[in-house]
Design brief:
By secondary structure, the protein is an alpha+beta fold. The chain has five domains: 5-129, Four Helix Bundle (Hemerythrin (Met), subunit A) (Up-down Bundle), CATH 1.20.120; 155-253, Alpha-Beta Plaits; 303-359; 363-542, Histidine kinase-like ATPase, C-terminal domain (Heat Shock Protein 90, 2-Layer Sandwich); 547-695, CheA-289, Domain 4 (OB fold (Dihydrolipoamide Acetyltransferase, E2P), Beta Barrel), CATH 2.40.50. Helix content is 42%, strand content 22%. It contains 22 helices and 22 strands. Strands 14-18-19-17-16-15 form a six-stranded mixed beta sheet. The chain has a five-stranded mixed beta sheet with strand order 6-8-9-11-10. Strands 20-12-13-22-21 form a five-stranded mixed beta sheet. Helix 1 (9-31) runs antiparallel to helix 2 (37-56) and helix 3 runs antiparallel to helix 4 (85-107). The longest helix is centred in the middle third of the chain and has 29 residues, at 250-278. The radius of gyration is 34 Å and the shape is flat. The two termini are 52 Å apart. Residues 131-153, 262-293 and 687-696 have low confidence and may be disordered.
């Protein structure tokens, strides 16, 4: 019976992308000078696993590309090659290429063959051009198979192999007999077995390996073929491979010398061509950045969360059984038991809801892990010295929010590095350390997650921001704005203070996208900045997009939900306080500012029960840094609501973000505050919602 191994592809890709993340993290540590044997071993093992898995599933291009990386890493971990910044940078680029190859295989798309060949050629050039330095004292637990080039006077006659498996070799699924059989197929093999490690019969463990072998393989066999037989057990044995050289005849020496004389001019031409290719300019950081792995279709859940859910299911079954017995034999005297049972059912349901939501929660380190590489590449490109600090990495966030917050965070970090941090010379002149700092911090606050991007750079230049805004016609030249309002201008579409457009930033695209993406998640972004000291961008997000805390309101005869995170306060107003401005409509003076008023019954084409502002309430909400007042009839109460997509089940409607089912079975629409603001600015965007559409 054949086994369809394609069913394991998803697991292979998931583990491979995790392995690439581990390789990238380890290489970045090497680049910072934190080289140690264990770190190199970790990188090597990740490459080795990807190579083996790719070969098993038939992805030979991936396997062959990884083999070159693995060879370079093997020389590093054996002490045969020095770890340099050039080698780590090249390996980082190779990790990018490998990620792109795996993504292409997973999504069944074409790969960039030209880039793959170029990076592969540079890896091979580094292997061939830089002679491996053999360590003074070789570690017997590693493969002693350094590249041995036969001179024209010598040929490979065979190999002397010392093979001592570790005791646990059988438990890894490997068998020395199969390896010896493979060796014998390469040439003339003789072996001597040593049973020095064999214990007394009473102490013999049938699943342990005790024997070792001294092997002699005769024949002109390439070293790679010998090493390949043992590559699956190189961490599970002591292995030594030494070449046996054969003296050639005088005729062979003469022929070899003649070949060398002919080949020398050709080699010079080839070397010039190769040097030109290796010296080609490196692509821009923005273009060579790692290709994001496809969104994961599965998540790993700790057994503690699964156990908790199983326990809650047990409690729910007990409660259901109790209520069933009460229902079968109900008498009026059992009413207190029924009330207690229903209260217990409510408690169990809420605990189960929270437990299920925790399953979707992942540490934000999944989003933070991309930034060490990003900062490393951008700091090299910009010539700035940057230290990245990550805190609160274990703070948990819903998987859906995690996937959508990545791009806004990238924009903010790039902006801090490009616009915020100064060059080393400028920082030293200002009395600062030449190395700037960018800090990413995450923590929970109430029902939200707070993400802070902090830099100790020059801070925002209010004068420059204001003059640029006036130049682009975004504000009037005589406008009086507070520093906080000026800071908000950077989120306007097309705004940029960059004097020179670069591939890092400066095209006026990014910060407006940041705000729209974050508000689309039901969150907000704030800025605090001080000249010469730095800036802090604070992102506030709901922990999950599936459930939210909402305020139920009544407008005419319909119920709506306003997200609690958007509400600032609720007021009773007096008609005499209202101001009316031509082309602006109604404005309410809220302390030191005027807030536009939106009558929701007009927006949703409802027949109002009252049009008198004094008979209703004004709910002040905030979105995209602006406030508006929503005129409603009444407040009905706060509750957690399960969000259902309106666009998926009906169609997209500006001003509405979704719908939910209330406790009485009726449907309530959830208001989208940024959408309502867009409707206020451009009423032509309004989509008429009739009572029939409500029912839909």
């Amino acid at each position: 019976m054949s086994i369809d191994i394609s069913q394991f592809h998803d697991v292979f890709f998931e583990e491979s992308f995790e392995g690439l993340d581990a390789m990238e993290s380890g290489l970045l540590n090497l680049a910072e000078g934190a080289a140690d044997v264990e770190a190199i071993n970790t990188i090597f093992r990740a490459a080795h696993s990807i190579k083996g898995g790719a070969g098993t599933f038939g992805f030979m291009a991936v396997s062959e590309f990884t083999h070159v990386m693995e060879t370079l890493l093997d020389e590093m971990r054996n002490g045969q090659r020095e770890v340099t910044s050039d080698s780590t940078n090249l390996l980082l680029e190779a990790v990018d290429v490998l990620r792109e190859m795996l993504s292409a295989v997973q999504q069944k798309t074409d790969t960039d063959e030209e880039r793959i060949a170029e990076v592969n050629q540079r890896l091979e050039a580094m292997l061939a051009g830089e002679k491996a330095e053999v360590a003074d004292s070789a570690d017997e637990s590693t493969i002693n198979a350094a590249a041995v080039e036969a001179s024209p006077e010598q040929k490979i006659a065979g190999w002397e192999i010392k093979f001592h498996p570790h005791k646990h070799l059988f438990q890894t699924g490997n068998d020395p007999v199969r390896m010896l059989r493979e060796l014998a197929s390469l040439g003339d093999l003789t072996s001597r077995v040593s049973d020095d490690g064999l214990p007394d019969f009473a102490d013999l463990e049938p699943e342990d390996s005790y024997l070792s072998w001294q092997l002699t393989l005769k024949g002109n066999v390439p070293k790679e073929e010998v090493v390949e037989i043992f590559e699956w057990v190189d961490d599970d044995c002591d292995l030594s491979i030494e070449v046996i050289l054969q003296e050639p005849t005088k005729v062979e020496i003469a022929v070899a010398q003649l070949d060398e004389n002919i080949a020398e001019p050709v080699a010079e031409v080839q070397q010039e061509s190769k040097s030109e290719q290796v010296a080609a300019p490196v692509k821009a950081v923005a273009k060579k950045a790692a290709t994001s792995a496809p969104a994961a279709t599965s998540i790993r859940v700790g057994t503690d969360k699964v156990d908790s859910l199983i326990n809650l299911v047990g409690e729910l079954v007990i409660t259901q059984s109790m209520l069933s017995q009460i229902g079968d034999n109900f008498v009026p005297g059992m009413l207190p038991q029924l009330i207690d049972g229903l209260a217990q059912l409510e408690r169990n349901s809420r605990e189960m809801q929270e437990a299920i939501m925790r399953i979707r929660m992942l540490p934000i380190s999944f989003a933070f892990n991309r930034f060490p590489r990003l900062v490393h590449d951008l700091s090299d490109k910009s010539g700035k010295k940057v230290e990245l600090k990550l805190t609160g990495e274990q703070t948990e966030l819903d998987k859906t929010v995690m996937e959508k917050i990545g791009d806004p965070l990238v924009h903010l970090v790039r902006n801090s590095l490009d616009h915020g941090l100064e060059t080393p010379e400028v920082r030293l002149a200002a009395g600062k350390d030449e190395t700037g700092t960018i800090q990413l911090n995450a923590y929970h606050q109430g029902g939200n997650i707070i993400i802070e991007i902090v830099d100790d750079g020059a801070g925002l230049n209010e004068e420059k921001i204001f003059s640029k805004a006036v130049e682009k016609g975004l504000v009037e030249a005589d406008a009086e704005l507070s520093p906080e309002k000026i800071h908000e201008l950077i989120f306007l579409p097309g705004f940029s203070t960059a004097d020179v457009v670069t591939d890092i930033s400066g095209r006026g695209v990014g910060m407006d996208v940041v705000r729209s993406n974050i508000t689309g998640l039901g969150g907000s972004v704030e800025i605090k900045s001080k000249r010469g000291e730095g800036s802090t961008f604070t992102i506030r997000l709901p922990l999950t997009l599936a459930i939210m805390d909402g305020q139920t309101i009544r407008v005419a005869n319909e119920n709506y939900i306003i997200p609690l995170i958007s509400i600032i306060e609720t007021l009773e107003v007096k008609e005499s306080d209202m101001k009316y401005v031509s082309a602006k409509g109604e404005l309410y003076p809220l302390r030191d500012e005027y807030v536009p008023v939106i009558r929701l019954y007009d927006i949703f084409n409802l027949t109002p029960t009252t049009t008198d502002l004094e008979e209703g309430l004004l709910v002040i909400v905030e979105g995209e840094g602006q406030k508006i007042g929503l005129f409603i009839d009444d407040l009905l109460g706060q509750q957690q609501v399960v969000i259902k997509s309106l666009e998926t089940n009906y169609r997209k409607v500006i001003g509405l973000s979704g719908a939910t089912i209330l406790g009485d079975g009726t449907v309530a629409l959830i208001l989208d505050v940024p959408g309502l603001m867009a409707l206020y600015r451009d009423p032509s965007l309004a989509k008429v919602i009739t009572n029939n559409e409500h029912a839909a």
